[in-house]
Amino acid sequence: MNAKSKKRRIDQAVQAQAQQARVISREIHGWAERPFREVQSSQRLAEYLAENGFAVEFPFKKIPTAFRAVWGAGKPVVGMLGEYDALPGCSVDEDGAWGHG
C-alpha cells in the first residue's frame, strides 16, 4: 500500500467518527466539570472507546477520573493525555462560572 492509499484510509476513518466526536465534545463542554471531578466526561470517553473495540480499565490506578484504553498489540505504541477539566471564569453563560477556555 502506498502513502496516498494510507492517507485516504486514515481520512475515511477520521470522517467516519467525526460526527460522534462532535457530539461527545459538546457533551463534555456542557458538563464543565472541575479538575479531578471529570466523572461524566471521563466515563463518556471510556464508554466511546469501549464501544469501538478498546479494552478499557476504568477507573485506572485508583484515580476515579482516569482510564486506560488499549487496542491491538505490538508497535507502534501511541499514548494520549486528555485535559478537559473546566476553568473558573470561563463560562460563556455566566460571569465567573466554570467553563472551558
Write structural notes for this entry.
The chain is mainly alpha-helical and 101 residues long. It has one domain. 42% of the residues lie in helices and 6% in strands. The protein has two helices and two strands, in the order H-H-E-E. It has helices at 3-31, 39-51, and strands at residues 55-57, 68-70. It has a two-stranded antiparallel sheet with strand order 1-2. Helix 1 packs antiparallel against helix 2 (39-51). The mean pLDDT is 91.
Short description:
The protein is mainly alpha-helical and 101 residues long. The protein has 2 helices and 2 strands. The longest helix is centred in the N-terminal third of the chain and has 29 residues, at 3-31.
Anisotropy-based shape: globular
Low-confidence stretches: none
Query: Which structural class should the secondary elements be placed in?
Result: mainly alpha
Strand content: 5-15%
Helix content estimate: 40-55%
Sheet with most strands:
2 strands, antiparallel
Number of strands: 2
Radius of gyration: 16 Å
Secondary-structure element sequence? HHEE
